[in-house]
Amino acid sequence: MDISNRLYTRIGNPLEWTSTRKAAFLIWIYFFQQGIYMAWLLWLPGQGEFEQHFNRVAIADHTQRFIWLQLASLALIVITGWAQLRKSDHLFYEYLATLYFGVTHVYYGYCVGLMSLPVGVVLVGAPVVGFIFFNRRAVALAFVSALLAVSVLSYLTYMGRLPYAPLAEQLYLQNHQLSPFWLLAYCVFASPHLLIIFALTYYVLQRWRVREQEANYHSRTDSLTGLVNRRCILELLEQEQKRSVRERAPLSVVMVDLDHFKLINDSWGHQVGDAVLVLASRALKHTLRQHDHVGRYGGEEFLVILPGLEAEQARNLAERIRVAIGEVMMDLPGGQHLSLSASLGMTSVSATHPVSVDVLIKQADTALYQAKSCGRDQVVVMV
After folding, report:
1. What pLDDT, on a 0 to 100 scale, did the predictor assign at position 95?
2. The pTM is what?
3. Number of structural domains found in the chain
């Protein structure tokens, strides 16, 4: 079991979470990100070798705002946690969490420079992931609000009413290149976002892949017997017929029909009839070779494809199938026992005389009809 499957088993599918739980998840992630920002702001400027890169006056002012935003996140955690305990699920929480996340991130970006890597990562990556996990209108509102906030702050900065990157001192070198310190700082700020975006995107893609595999399996499999269904077995027959023509190899097809199946259903009920189909399917699978194919063709009929077998070899294998089904014994209420039998119609084509899939099916079906007409529980071959 891979990491995404273990995570899915533990926390369920985030795509199916309630709005309250999604909001709480987003705020928790954001709370830890804010903790990183706060630790950076409180610790790094006090280090002698880094002090020159910070505006000490601005830091004193913005530290209080960082603290208030951290407390606001804590309050939202309490609110969403209380809502989950009360089993209250309302789309309002998604709107609140995404809007708070988007707008306040703009403020953090403003503090270190709006035209920076972290701001770009959030503005581009967060909506992409958000549209997958959260309500699309909530994400769209948060995105538009964040863009509006960026536009207003950029305009005020351009007009000289607000400083650009107020926390930074010596943001650019004399040659107008970004300071190596702030380049590294931007990478540090952007890393948590990139990791979260990567992890969530990977998880979603893995879940979609699993769903696609499950959907493909169910579309090709008979739910009762576990064999491939009619559509799939006919596709396999088409492939084997083409390979037989291409490689000049023999091909045999067997149609299997359980005898007196309608009587079993009428006498013992459909539950017993279903159990009979399952037991017969197991007998078929255990008798065939690894590269043979068997599928439920319809009702109590099964279609068996035997690649590479000449008529005589295929007949021997068909006979083993008949014997294997005849050995199936089912216990019934009242100490009674039910034994099975099957009629089989078989056809084979040689490497030198290929025929179409329709002809193969028709010949096998005709042979099956003869087997039923001649007393059942036998193999009839039509070449």
Report:
1. 95
2. 0.63
3. 2
